[in-house]
Amino acid sequence: MGLIILNNNNARLLMMVMVGGLSSLIERSRGHDYADALSKSILFFEAQRSGKLPPTQRMTWRKDSALHDGDQFLDGASHFSHKVDLVGGYYDAGDNVKFNFPMAFSTTMLAWSVTQFGKSMGTELKHGLEGIRWGTEYLMKATSVPGYVFAQVGDPYSDHHCWERPEDMDTSRTVYAVSKDYPGSEVSAEIAAALAASSIVFKKYQQLAYSASLLQRATMVFEFADKYRGSYNDRLGQWVCPFYCDYSGYHDELVWAAAWLFKATKNPYYWKYINDNIHNVKNFGEFGWDSKDAGINVLLSKLMINSNSNSLKNKPFIPNADKFICSVLPESPSRSVSYSQGGLMFKPGGSNLQHATAFSFLFLVYADILKKVNRNVDCGGKASASPTRLIQFAKSQVDYILGSNPMKMSYMVGYGQKYPQRIHHRASSLPSMDMQRAHIDCEGGSSYFQSQNPNPNVLLGAVVGGPDINDFYADSRSDFAHSEPTTYINAPFVGALAYFTSHPSPN
């Protein structure tokens, strides 16, 4: 890339040359605008909103949708005639279903992003808090009926058969729930984690009454999840699978929720619960909407490092967090992930950038922990990873996503000069209500799906599934494994971008 000097930046660039030399100027010109990317990454969540949109809505091409969610209620076995208000929340990806399991995880990660790096968000902190609250308001509704936790709104098969705007939806909005008779510990515990993590955020930013309300509900939902143990796969599997089937079991969500409740309350009950159940957390190299194991170890490592309590001695958190780091770093002899030629980490399955963003976030959190105790991670042989090395890894993944890759392409929509144009996203790919008021039915959207034209609505901030392992991206709407954005790709990316906004250099 050549050096480009814009007229309105002449004075600033000249000053950089004077004080830092030409090499600093060139390096800055090749850098990324993390603050701009942060702003867009949070804005994306506004486009994923379901329900009655507020007057402050900035993604104005989106309109109200799914205003009758809760009219059809199913608990896994029987239909009921009564209704419940389930308006609101987020669409998880490019479809119009509300999957509460990944939605709750996305809310947890937004909350952790703000808790960890909120001081670096500047004016975007306000929007970050709004993003969390849009999630928690819905999750409070989803846990408002005693004896039930609502797990999903919308029949995924009819929804995926149609290519419709959320504003036009006429597919079934059946509600699926778990109960003491038909348990779903993973979805219930993840909601408890989201509410507990969010209560910490709102307490920190002086919304004390709301924080207390979230924490009270989190306590109740966790008790429900633990008392009535079982996977929602067993009763709701025909509707939640294969979309968000629980492949890793529910024990990790129970410990994850207990960890957040302990962090929020310091209640020794939750610490005892963690000690009694941590043996169930075995997948130290996994973290995402399904498996919380690496996140648990990183989260609890901070508590261990800051405590002198004998009850923390010989606990597996730090060793397992170290194992996680060593399972990812390219130079580690125990590495278990793959890398593209361009440097992007890969794990099996679709939406690969969910791993890059989530792992980068954990690396930054753990680097902060290691810095405080002046410690490195020993990966064996000559592979010793300093906190700076962890930050360098996270930066390499963030920068790849933002355009430092062989295709010179940003995988965040609307960031940079070249980014995905034909993403797998119904609302983005169909004319907005402002462009076409007339109803577009199920089959009517097919021509827009098949079109080679760019999506008419720019889904600012959306991070897609990303390129293949050969660093190639086809930019095809039908290639959903690579072209579909999700909330759980973006949520940890918010925290990573916040960090690099105030720490652009890993040193």
TrEMBL record:
The active site is at H424, D475, E484. It is an enzyme of class 3 (hydrolase). Gene3D superfamilies: 1.50.10.10. Keywords: Carbohydrate metabolism, Cellulose degradation, Glycosidase, Hydrolase, Polysaccharide degradation. Residues 34-497 form the Glycoside hydrolase family domain. InterPro entries: 6-hairpin_glycosidase_sf (IPR008928), 6hp_glycosidase-like_sf (IPR012341), Glyco_hydro_9 (IPR001701), Glyco_hydro_9_Asp/Glu_AS (IPR033126), Glyco_hydro_9_His_AS (IPR018221). Pfam families: Glyco_hydro_9 (PF00759). Its EC number is 3.2.1.4. It catalyses: Endohydrolysis of (1->4)-beta-D-glucosidic linkages in cellulose, lichenin and cereal beta-D-glucans. Belongs to the glycosyl hydrolase 9 (cellulase E) family. This is Endoglucanase. It comes from Stylosanthes scabra.
